[in-house]
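Let us practice reading a record.
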Amino acid sequence: MTGMILFIAGCGRSPDHQSPIDDATILTVTFAGDLGLGLAVQSYPWIEKNGYHAAFANVRPVIKDTDFFIPNLESPITDPETPSIFPKRRPRQPPEVATALQDEGVTIVGLANNHQMDFGKPGLDSTLKYLHAAGIKTFGAGENLAQATEPLILEKNGYKVAVVAGCRPRKWQLLATDELAGVAPLERKPWSKAIKKAKKKADFVVALPHWGECNKSKISDEEKKYAQITVDAGADLVIGHHPHIPQTMEIIRGVPVLYSIGNFIFHGIRQIELEKGPRNLRFDYSWVTKVEWTRRGLKSITIIPFFNNNLKTDFTPRPAEPKNARWLYERLLPEGYWEQTGNRAVIRFL
């Protein structure tokens, strides 16, 4: 995997920057949701026995079968002595996680989420140190607003895709400002500016908003508002996360908007607590989305579903059964836009 990568909060296509690439050439980028290893105390014995690599047993093919793979790293990577800025316990990931990600072929992670600053600037500095030492590129957070929103460009064969990431304000998180380190804010002005900046540097822009409400299947009014803002700014594709479950997809003025693809590998406390009570089927599942382009534009989106109920999968996501995957597709995808092959749904645009 070579070339540059452009990540910022928002995405779109720039007709003025078409690259000379044959129609038959396909660029693929695969996006995954929240990634957090060993976050919940319930996962500690399993991690101690099996190690971090075991959690990747069933997802390795989706990491390797693409030009670029991009998950959202939901929690910071810090040393045990790094203090949280909050009175209650906040999950962290140890430095060994960066090495595990490197070993598994993860070369890029997004950081624009509501937990990345749980340990303040020292936690962010630690996260960046360990990830960069492992050769993993980052976007969506930085020393200041300019760094946090700086587009990172993915390039292959002279063709460029820009990816942008931003997080909605939360009372417990630290957003980047002109003077302060933090995550890229999902606010109208900086978000739109980041998207427009990306469009000037790439053929396509993909927006990764961290938004919505945790464990809520209903799309919030705020999500709808910012989906429109994102499209208005010029994004070509919107793929969200934060709710921890897959939500609906809709088309806004020709732009696909997947409001949430759920978790990737996520050993979270809340997810385990929810598993103790009555559950809706979608809480047990998540989507990985493989996106393909040709020179003429977006070719297809393939949804790859995983069953990730931690107590039933032993903290190791596994491919969803086709019948359960279809149950989700029929409720969350636009009618007439998709076809199912095995457990996957393919949405074609060309």
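A brief commentary: The first strand starts at residue 27 and ends at 36.
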